[in-house]
């Protein structure tokens, strides 16, 4: 369960809600840019004749860079504030999108998408927003983090059908140029939403309540809870990305039309927005552990439905897979992130969360690339989906072990 507060937390001020809305909007934009890779995967295979493993490398490297770059992002946001990180991230994303539109080799996609765009997206992601939000919303921390994180699901839902439509209409290179134009136009408004959030600014998060231990990264690393959280992040990344990157490719292999598959899976991903918010709110009521385990169970059921799809006549199974896997895609995030803030409060939360997020990068990178490799070797995603289920089960066990706070 969450650590009890010593006194009732005050209601969040008006600017806290505006900050939360800005985080949601900004994260939606960056997530839609990054998750569109699932659609571009088939375009790359068609144009460059790469194998599934090769085409997955850009995404796999992206997840690794995201994880290993998170500690740096966490340290920076603790020092220079949210607004400057958002402006930096938007600029990097714009440059990466423009460059990827001109790419004609695998190493270029890996560098531009896997490194440049990913570091930009990291500056527009949860590691930047959570330290601010967790101190602005003490009483409903899980709910607030869930609202911010639900933008990830909304971005994923928007990106698949929209990117597939633009690719069909104008080609994948023009689709990247269109994304770059959108990012460039939104850069300044996104920065404006976080004015005054720099350290010492008028809208900066208040200092943690007196009496709470102010954890440092060095202290946190010496607790078993840090490594249990690391394991949870690792297994969640493995479980999710053994499936998510290759969902459209899997559906097309089973005989479904690409645009129809993108629509179905995008519709399922749209459910992640209410799913994440509901799971985060539930974690404030029944505890982080139970909330996360329920989300794991629903995700496992979604993967099971995919295992039974054999051909294009299995429309119901495809919809069930999309909805059950989609509604809990990212739903564990608020519980895990709020649990991290519960266990390790203080001004160094960004650095601690960034270090733990390395686990997500490793798991997501290995999962997305491993699923492609498994397909290249076996001609099927079946083993990858079974490994997804196994990873989710290990994540359940690790999360349950976090019930008591560290000494």
Can you describe this structure?
The chain is mostly helical. The chain has one domain (about 15-400): MFS general substrate transporter like domains (Growth Hormone, Chain: A), CATH 1.20.1250.20. It has 19 helices and no strands. The chain has helices spanning about 15-35, 35-50, 50-80, 80-100, 105-120, 125-135, 140-170, 170-190, 215-220, 225-240, 245-255, 260-270, 270-285, 290-305, 315-325, 330-345, 350-355, 360-380, 380-400. The longest helix is centred in the middle third of the chain and has 30 residues, at about 140-170.
How much is the average pLDDT?
84
Number of strands: 0
Terminal-residue CA separation:
15 Å
Radius of gyration: 20 Å
Low-confidence stretches: 1-9
Helix content: over 70%
CATH superfamily: MFS general substrate transporter like domains
CATH fold type: Growth Hormone, Chain: A
Q: Give the ordered list of helices and strands.
A: HHHHHHHHHHHHHHHHHHH
**Assembly state (oligomeric):** single chain
For the record, the count of structural domains works out to: 1
User: What's the architecture in CATH terms?
Assistant: Up-down Bundle
CATH C-level class = Mainly Alpha
**What is the makeup of the main sheet?**
none
Shape: globular
Beta-strand residue fraction: under 5%
Q: What is the overall number of helices?
A: 19
């Amino acid at each position: 369960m969450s650590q009890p507060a010593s006194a009732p937390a005050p209601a969040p001020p008006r600017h806290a809600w505006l900050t939360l809305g800005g985080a949601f909007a900004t994260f939606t934009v960056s997530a839609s840019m990054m998750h569109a890779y699932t659609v571009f995967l088939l375009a790359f295979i068609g144009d460059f004749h790469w194998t599934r493993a090769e085409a997955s490398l850009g995404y796999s490297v992206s997840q690794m860079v995201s994880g290993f770059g998170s500690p740096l992002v966490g340290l920076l946001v603790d020092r220079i504030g949210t607004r400057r990180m958002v402006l930096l991230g938007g600029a990097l994303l714009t440059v990466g999108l423009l460059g990827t539109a001109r790419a004609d080799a695998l190493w270029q996609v890996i560098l531009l998408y896997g490194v440049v765009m990913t570091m930009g997206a990291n500056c527009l992601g949860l590691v930047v927003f959570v330290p601010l939000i967790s101190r602005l919303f003490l009483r409903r921390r899980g709910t607030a983090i869930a609202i911010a994180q639900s933008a990830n699901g909304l971005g994923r839902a928007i990106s698949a059908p929209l990117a597939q439509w633009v690719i069909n209409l104008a080609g994948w290179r023009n689709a990247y140029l269109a994304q770059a134009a959108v990012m460039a136009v939104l850069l300044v408004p996104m920065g404006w939403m976080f004015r005054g959030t720099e350290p010492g600014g008028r809208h900066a998060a208040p200092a943690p309540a007196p009496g709470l231990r102010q954890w440092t990264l060095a202290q946190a690393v010496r607790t078993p809870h840090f490594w249990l959280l690391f394991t949870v992040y690792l297994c969640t990344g493995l479980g999710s990305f053994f499936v998510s990157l290759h969902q459209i490719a899997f559906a097309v292999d089973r005989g479904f039309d690409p645009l129809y598959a993108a629509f179905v899976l995008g519709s399922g991903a749209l459910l992640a927005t209410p799913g994440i918010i509901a799971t985060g709110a539930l974690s404030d009521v029944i505890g982080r552990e139970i909330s996360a385990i329920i989300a794991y169970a629903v995700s496992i059921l979604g993967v099971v439905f995919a295992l039974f799809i054999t051909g294009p006549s299995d429309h119901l199974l495809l919809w069930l897979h999309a909805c059950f896997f989609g509604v809990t895609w990212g739903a564990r995030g608020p519980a895990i992130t709020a649990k991290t803030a519960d266990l390790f409060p203080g001004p160094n939360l960004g650095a601690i969360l960034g270090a733990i997020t390395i686990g997500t990068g490793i798991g997501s990178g290995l999962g997305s690339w491993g699923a492609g490799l498994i397909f290249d070797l076996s001609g099927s995603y079946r083993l990858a989906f079974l490994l997804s289920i196994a990873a989710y089960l290990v994540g359940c066990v690790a999360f349950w072990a976090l019930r008591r706070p560290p000494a």
